[in-house]
Each structure stands twice: as structure tokens, then as C-alpha cells.
Amino acid sequence: MKVYELKRAPNARRVRMFLAEKGVDMAYEQVDLSGGENLSPDFLAKNPAGRIPVLALDDGSYLSESVAICRYFEELYPDNNLFGTTPLERAQIEMWSRFIEFNLWQPAGMAFRHITGFYQDRETCFPEWGQECKLLTGQWFGKLEERLQASVYIAGDRFTIADILALCAIDFAARTLALHISDEQIALKRWYDAVSSRPSAQA
Amino acid sequence: MKVYELKRAPNARRVRMFLAEKGVDMAYEQVDLSGGENLSPDFLAKNPAGRIPVLALDDGSYLSESVAICRYFEELYPDNNLFGTTPLERAQIEMWSRFIEFNLWQPAGMAFRHITGFYQDRETCFPEWGQECKLLTGQWFGKLEERLQASVYIAGDRFTIADILALCAIDFAARTLALHISDEQIALKRWYDAVSSRPSAQA
């Protein structure tokens, strides 16, 4: 098996961090997103959406989408559970994962692309929409502060895939949008320090 | 148990269709989205994201996000499997579900909101971005045509949650954006006729 990725891309980091938590060794091959390698016919045959990460399976098929790849490895390696054990816990973790994806990660990604025009060779950018997305991203820092005042981790009392998604989104927002946890967001900062000090955060 | 929803909202339809496929009876309560009932403190206590559908559980807790709700019922009622049985099939169904959500449903939803200003009392709209989203939605009709030339259903050779997500998105795009399957998209039309004629499509 091998993962096609780009080391600095947040969705690729999700998979690396997840596999580090699981203790799974993996081979990686870098994809030149800036040069458009992900839009080549060869790559689109692996993933019709033209995105990384993509897992190449030993049978010659491919699996895309970071969370689908993580869930695949969760089921292959059930120790150190990160997706939940009971139907309700599994649903709650998925709910929080989706909250993070739709309200924190996606606005952050759109803000970056529309403000910087990073992919303006292949998409139409609207900087004002990017600024609005940056505002929306910042608002969810506040939602997470409220949540983490009541919960040790994002989805409950233990570390899960939802924390991986949130950490990757927050570090991306800090690096590309200069959005940072404020001094008043004490619970969010406590969570951030705990999660980012895990060895997997360096994967 | 009870589901808070809005009958005409596509994410609410996902849950109704899923429960109809599973043969699960459910009580529903309508939420006045246009009037902002979903942004009231009472509703935000149920779902901090302020969205429908929300499942009220018998223990007094709440579960949000359509796909998390569906997965919860999948695990409670494993007959007529819709999320996959093996680790690989489950990952493939999740991959296609995410393709549909991110590339078809989300652009369609943003197009509707930004073009019509439907929620302009509570969000800033950029009509040009809405038009771009409409273009992106239409492009994925073409991606689905390619996929369905090679596959009977979206995620493989049987009906799954991915087909529910796709049907809800396509019907929404037709109704609100006047985006329709073209005469040349024969495989997509074949799939659409098969899926929309299931009794659950009327739920």
C-alpha cells in the first residue's frame, strides 16, 4: 500500500496523524498540486475528484477521501479505537467530525483559496467571499471554546478522529489565515496544547 | 425518539428516505427555518450548528448531522445494509458519499443561498460566487455520468446511502437551480429513474 499526498496539505496530515496513532507504517509519494499533477488524466483515474490523499491498495484499486481512508484503517486495526465503539458513540464522533469539517475546515480552506488565489490558474476566486469564510472560521473557534468548556475532547472524554480533524484545521487556519486561539479561549487552548503535544501531531 | 426537520429540506429528506429503506417508523416535528427558529437558544442547545435534522433520543440527548443519524440507525437496524459490510466496501461507500456531499450537494446548497439570498437576513451573499457554485454543481453531473457508465449504483453494484445523498442533491438542484440531467447523460438518467422510483423516494 502507498498514500499519494502532499506533506503540507491538511487533509494529508489527517491520514498521517491517524496512522501514527494506530502505529501503522506507510509509504508516501508526493503529488505536485501546484503544478497540477492532481488534474492529470493519470491522477484522475485514481481519484475522479482530483484530490489528495489517495490510498493505493495492493489489488491495484484506489481509495480517496481522508476520513474514508482513516475508517478503512480503523477497521483493519481496531486497537486504539478512534471512531467509537457503540452505535451512539460512533454517531456522536461522526457528528462532531462533520461539525469540524463543514464549519471549521471547509470555510478555512475556501478562505485560503479565495483570498490568496492560490489555485487561480484553475478556479475563479472571489476575495470578498474568502474574507467572509475567514470570519465564519473564526466564529467556530468560539463554538469550540464553548464545547471544550464542557468536554475534555471534541467528541467526548477521549481522543478521537474528531480531534485530529480539528487540530489539522486549526493549524491550517493559523498558518494560512493568521487566525489564532485568543487569550480568552482557555478551554480551547488547554485542548490544543494536549492534542498538539501527542507524538502523532508531528507525523 | 423524534426528528426535528423541515419537510422540504434536502438533508431532512436523506434521513426520511433512509428510515423508509430500513422500515423504521419515526415521529417528526417541523422547524421554521425561514423564521429563524433554528437559531433560537432553545434549538442551539440541541444542535450548536443550528441546522436540521436533529434526532431527539429517549435519554434526553440529541444527535445532529444527517449522515451521523443514518449511521446510528444503520447500526441499530443492520438488516438491509446501506453503509457497507466489509472494511473496503464501507470505505468505498464513504468515499462516494463524500464525493457527493462535497462536489454536488454543497455547491448546490451554496448556489441556492448565494443566488437567491434566501437567508440574507442572517448571512452575507455573493451572487457571483453562487453562479460559480452552480457551474461546479453541473460539472459533477458529468462526473456522475462517467461513474454510472461503469457502475450500476453510485458506490458499486447495489443501492447504498451514497445513492440517497445523490438523489437528494440532484432533486434539490433541479428544483432550486433548474439544473437537469441532459439527454446525453444516459447512464445518469437510467440511475435516476431506478432510484427515484423506489418507494422510499416519496418518504
From TrEMBL, chains A, B:
Pfam families: GST_C (PF00043), GST_N_3 (PF13417). GO terms for cellular component: cytoplasm. CDD domains: GST_N_GTT2_like. One of its GO terms (molecular function) is glutathione binding. It is an enzyme of class 2 (transferase). Residues 86-203 form the GST C-terminal domain. This is glutathione transferase. The lineage of its organism: Bacteria, Pseudomonadati, Pseudomonadota, Gammaproteobacteria, Aeromonadales.
